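User: ok so my PI wants both of these folded by tonight, can you help

Assistant: No problem, let's get them done. Here's the first:
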Amino acid sequence: MTCRTLCAAVVLILVASTFPVVAYGQGIQIETAPQVVREAIRQGEINTFQIEVTNTGAVPVKVVAEVVDLAIDEYGYNVEVPERAGYVWGLQEMTKVSPEEFLLNPGEMQIAEVAIDAPKPLSGGRYGIVYFAASDKSAKGRIIMVVRCGSLLFATVPGTEMYSGRVKDIRLIQSEDSRPGYFGGFDVIFENTGNVHVSATGQIEVSNGKSTVLKTALRGGTGTVLPGGTRVYRAELGQAIPDGDYQVTVEFEFEGKRVSAQKVLSVKGRQAYLE
């Protein structure tokens, strides 16, 4: 995960205006380090660490810190969880940043102290993003550009981790290729049923009992799946599969564990289905 994927420019229109939009924040650029924070935290204690925020732009900026809960969707994209969404794996309610607001001239760096006040009892993992929103401190008028950059937080309570997962589903990918035996491939859904994030890798094998017609790794980005979350892994098919019945076997490995699932693939001409 790079800071670039967590940074965005947002134009805030404070009052409706008829004159052209002017980017008062032009030249704003900030960076955070580290971009991913992995912390072992102790329940019943205040756990602290630091994030560096640097003004790498051309103008002085005002910076405001904000903590939001983090989820990762089934395709591996980071998702902000709305407040009061009933999300049990977030860090927002127990995390504070100091200072919450500060000024940075070009080239200056500010150390922000992040404190996680972990309740007791607490187990497994908790996840969030610390955002820093920068705006031109000299900007005046009705339109302000804000650049927001953040660091991912992965916090784990040592000794309380429960690693478990399952293959939730195996699906066929539809294809526009009308030739017999051709279809897009397979989408495999992995579900994290534990209480901490895992990095899962998988493979798929298609065989007819006599020979293997397909054996390949499943693609799923970094493979990081948060607790309660799912991830779509994909295997694309670049060959025709002859008519017949086949056994499809999927296997995942994560944190020293292994899970698998099987389905029967039936192929007849242009038709293919799983059961």
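One down. Here's the second:
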Amino acid sequence: MKQILDYTQTDFKDLVTKIVKDGQVVLHEQNLTQQELTKVCEKMGNVETNDYFMNPKDAPAISIVSGQLDKDKKPIGMFRDQELQWHANGTGRHEFREICVGLYCVYECVDTVLSINNNCNAFAGLSHEKKEFYRNIDVRLDNSGPRARLWPKDSDYEGVGEDTFRVGQEHYQETVDRRPLVEKHPFDGREYLYFMVPYIVKAFTKDGTEIEDFEDFYNTLWNDMIKSKYQYHHVFKVGDLLFMDQLNTIHRRSPIKDKDRQLWRTAFDYSNFI
């Protein structure tokens, strides 16, 4: 397997093209340090950095995703061993820029599945009438809404500080957080359905009229979009490096049975090629 560290800039452009086209790309048998993973993503665009509990001090572009605890019984990574429901990373923010997420496996768990739903393919599969209907819709976001939790409602998980790195509730405003349901991807121009499942709370036609039966609208959209034929499922092995576009896909994760499972997460844009 060719190592991504050996990629030329042409290889990286081809990689971005494939990520956007397919929604995700998996490279197997990679061998990377946290710093090398950061440099790889910088070849494609600007990389997000943070200073939270899950970010190593010497690799602030890396977010650890794990159920492991340190010697003081504190979590080393986000979301612990929880099942995560359908969502996309970061797309609910005002100034969302990091279009792509990379996940590199350093400790595997064969019982945990990452599922990815392709929103471009879902839109392409609609009838002409449905496409025109959805093109005429705007949706409103609110991360304090009834579906805002990423983990199941019946979970007793209280979080480990995830609310500190999500954009706060005060940033969700009627005039700011209304966006088109159908948008065009900035890399290739294909249309996709924007379905940030946890945060969509209202829908409007383009003339500003609110959809009265929102729950019926939401369920119809769900049934039109979330289908097995649009999905890819992945079980990580050590050395797997998976990239997934956050505009034209959403994803979910089954519960983690082996809490030592660990992924290194990065988020970046495609600015070197757009």
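The longest strand covers residues 100-107. The longest helix spans residues 9-22. Good luck tonight!
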